[in-house]
Specification:
There is one protein chain. This protein is of the alpha+beta class. It has three domains: 3-61, Orthogonal Bundle (434 Repressor (Amino-terminal Domain)); 80-151, no CATH class; 156-254, no CATH class. The chain has helices at residues 3-13, 18-24, 29-37, 44-54, 58-61, 110-121, 128-138, 143-146, 148-151, 156-169, 187-190; strands spanning 83-85, 91-96, 100-101, 104-105, 183-186, 193-195, 201-203, 210-217, 225-230, 234-240, 248-254. Strands 5-8-9-10-11 form a five-stranded antiparallel sheet. A two-stranded antiparallel sheet has the order 1-2. β1 (83-85) and β2 (91-96) form a beta hairpin. α2 crosses α3 and α6 (110-121) packs across α7 (128-138). It is globular, with a radius of gyration of 22 Å. The mean pLDDT is 93.
Length: 255
């Protein structure tokens, strides 16, 4: 689809008139009309406003003319749902939501990132050795790692993760191994439904937020695992079966 068709479709899907959209992005109705007929296109600053108001990336607004890749892990950004956001909700089209979330870079150690990525890449057609070799070759060419000294926060985020790890381990939860690492996890992937006494189920997380967490095998053996999630506000520990089945909340602690 062309930009003119995309804009019209998005506007109509959100129940906006041309006048209403024009008011939100600080232009005239005539300007919106010209965009939708293809006579003109929004300028860069207006595209940013449209992206925010219509909740799509600029790349999508323009008909996806660029193949986007995360400049930290190299993952193709094939849809808006995997693109990162700033603290104000605006898209950051340079990164995936696992590597950059709420204005914070999730990785300061390339080896840690490789360990996470390898687990997601190994499959029928890709061996662990091939995945590691590929990442070792690609990651140093990406903007984040080339500009790490400029973009990094001087170790503040790593210090925060270590603080969380220390707090979690200090809970001494029976059967749970010592937590050594916390990885970036998107809410929609870990937002399990916990049963309530009356039979209803409840989710405790925000699908669009990014948390720090890990999965740990129980020291008691068996098929159930411990799941650990945390952020600035809370620590959550649960257990569950294969693929997150039958979750049980062990602890939810405000920080």
């Amino acid at each position: 689809m062309e930009t003119k068709d995309i804009l019209r479709t998005l506007r109509e899907d959100r129940g906006l008139t041309q006048d209403a959209l024009a008011e939100k992005v600080l232009v005239t109705r005539q300007a919106v009309s010209r965009w939708e007929t293809g006579e003109t296109q929004p300028n860069t600053e207006t595209l940013k406003l449209l992206s925010r108001e219509l909740d799509v990336s600029i790349n999508t607004l323009l008909g996806s003319p660029r193949q986007l890749y995360c400049q930290c892990c190299g993952m193709p950004l094939t849809e808006d749902g995997v693109i990162s956001r700033e603290t104000d909700g605006a898209y950051n089209e340079d990164y995936c939501k696992w590597c950059y979330a709420d204005g914070t870079y999730m990785y300061s150690n390339m080896d840690d990132l490789i360990e996470v990525c390898v687990g997601n890449m190994v499959g029928e057609n890709v061996s662990e050795e091939q995945a590691r070799a590929h990442l070792r070759q690609v990651l140093p060419t990406l903007d984040y790692w080339k500009r790490y000294e400029e973009l990094s926060d001087g170790g503040q985020f790593e210090a925060f993760k270590q603080q969380l790890i220390d707090e979690i381990n200090a809970l001494h939860i029976e059967g749970m191994p010592v937590v050594e690492k916390l990885n970036a996890l998107v809410g929609s992937y870990v937002n399990l439904e916990y049963p309530l006494p009356g039979g209803a189920k409840v989710k405790l997380l925000d699908d669009r937020a990014t948390y720090l967490g890990n999965q740990l095998e129980s020291l008691f053996g068996g098929d159930r695992c411990f799941g650990v999630l945390a952020n600035m506000d809370f620590i959550l520990v649960c257990t569950y079966g294969e693929n997150g089945t039958d979750p049980e909340l062990v602890l939810y602690k405000k920080r």
